[in-house]
C-alpha cells in the first residue's frame, strides 16, 4: 500500500492591504500544486479584507483567522493559523509576497519531518511594485525570467543545518508536528521583529535542521515602507535569551496551549 501524499497548508499573514492580498491569492490560484488549505492570518484588518477572502472562497480552500487590532501581533496571528490548519506541512508567508507557479510543489519536494525549509525572497522596487498593483506588470511577467527556479542543488541544501539567520517567516515551511512540539510562535513578542528568528532557533534547540530552499522556493516581495520598530530593543533582548539558552524550546502561547 502506497504512502498518501502530504497535505499542505499555506498560512498567509495580512493587515489592511486587500489590493495586495488579492494579487497574492491570484498567484496561489496559479500554482502547479494547489494548497489543501489557505489560511489568512489577519492582525485586525477591516471588512475590505474579509470581502477579498470571500471573493476567493469558490476557487480556493480558504479560511479567515482574525484577531482584534491591538498592536503588531504576528506571532499570535500565525498561531491562529496553525490552530486552524490540519495539513502535515505548513508553509508560512507574508501577505505581500507573490508566488512563482512551482512554489508549493518545490516546497513539498524538500519537505521532511525534522527540517525547516528556508525559502528566499526577491525584493521588488517601489516602481516595480506600483506596476504590479496598477496592472501594467503581471505576476507572470515578474517571474518570466526566473529560469533558475528549477535548480536542484541536492545535498548542498543541508550544508548549514543551524543557519537560523537565513530563515524568515515571509517564506518557510515546517512539519506541523515539529511546530506544535515547541508550542508554535512565542506570543510575548509584540511589535515588529524577532518572533520569526525565535521560532526557528527554538526549532533548532528541539533538534530540527535547516534545509535551504534557495532558488527553488523564492518569492517576489512587493515594496512597502518599513514598519515601526519601537519595540525592537525589547524583542532583541528576549531573542538573545532564547539564542543563548539551548534548553529554551517551548513558546509562551495562549492559543495553541492555553
CATH topology: Spore Coat Polysaccharide Biosynthesis Protein SpsA, Chain A
Number of helices: 9
Number of folding domains? 1
Strand content: 15-25%
**CATH architecture assignment:** Alpha-Beta Complex
Silhouette: globular
State Rg: 17 Å
Terminus-to-terminus distance: 39 Å
> Going across the major beta sheet, what is the strand order?
3-2-1-4-8-6-9
Structural class: alpha/beta
Report on the biggest sheet.
Answer: 7 strands, mixed
Give start-end ranges of low-pLDDT stretches. none
Order of helices and strands: EHEHEHEEHEEHHEHHEEH
* Average pLDDT metric: 90
Give a topology summary.
Elements: E1 8-14, H1 18-29, E2 37-42, H2 47-55, E3 62-66, H3 74-84, E4 89-94, E5 97-99, H4 103-110, E6 115-118, E7 121-123, H5 126-133, H6 139-142, E8 171-175, H7 176-181, H8 195-205, E9 209-212, E10 219-221, H9 232-243
Parallel strand pairs: 1-2, 1-4, 2-3, 6-9, 7-10
Antiparallel strand pairs: 4-8, 5-10, 6-8
Helix pairs in contact: 1-2, 8-9
What does this structure look like?
The protein is an alpha/beta fold and 258 residues long. The protein contains nine helices and ten strands. Helix 8 (195-205) packs parallel to helix 9 (232-243). The chain starts with 7 loop residues before the first strand and ends in a 15-residue tail after the last helix.
Amino acid at each position: 500500500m502506497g504512502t498518501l501524499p502530504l497535505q499542505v497548508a499555506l498560512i498567509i499573514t495580512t493587515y489592511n492591504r486587500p489590493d495586495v492580498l488579492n494579487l497574492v491569492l491570484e498567484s496561489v490560484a496559479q500554482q502547479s500544486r494547489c494548497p489543501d488549505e489557505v489560511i489568512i492570518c489577519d492582525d485586525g484588518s477591516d471588512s475590505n479584507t474579509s470581502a477579498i477572502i470571500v471573493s476567493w472562497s469558490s476557487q480556493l480552500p480558504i479560511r479567515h483567522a482574525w484577531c482584534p487590532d491591538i498592536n503588531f501581533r504576528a506571532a499570535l496571528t500565525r498561531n491562529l493559523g496553525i490552530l486552524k490548519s490540519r495539513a502535515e506541512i505548513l508553509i508560512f508567508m507574508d501577505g505581500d509576497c507573490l508566488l512563482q507557479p512551482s512554489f508549493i510543489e518545490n516546497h513539498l519536494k524538500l519537505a521532511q519531518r525534522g527540517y525547516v525549509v528556508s525559502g528566499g525572497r526577491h525584493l521588488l522596487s517601489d516602481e516595480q511594485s506600483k506596476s504590479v498593483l496598477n496592472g501594467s506588470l503581471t505576476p507572470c511577467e515578474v517571474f518570466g525570467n526566473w529560469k533558475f527556479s528549477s535548480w536542484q542543488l541536492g545535498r548542498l541544501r543541508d550544508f548549514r543545518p543551524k543557519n537560523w539567520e537565513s530563515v524568515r517567516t515571509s517564506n518557510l515551511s515546517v512539519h506541523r508536528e515539529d511546530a506544535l512540539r515547541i508550542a508554535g510562535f512565542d506570543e510575548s513578542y509584540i511589535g515588529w521583529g524577532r518572533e520569526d528568528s525565535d521560532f526557528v532557533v527554538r526549532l533548532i534547540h528541539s533538534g530540527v535542521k535547516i534545509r535551504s530552499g534557495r532558488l527553488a522556493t523564492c518569492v517576489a516581495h512587493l515594496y512597502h515602507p518599513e514598519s515601526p520598530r519601537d519595540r525592537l530593543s525589547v524583542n532583541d533582548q528576549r531573542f538573545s535569551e532564547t539564542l543563548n539558552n539551548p534548553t529554551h524550546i517551548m513558546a509562551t502561547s495562549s492559543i495553541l496551549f492555553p
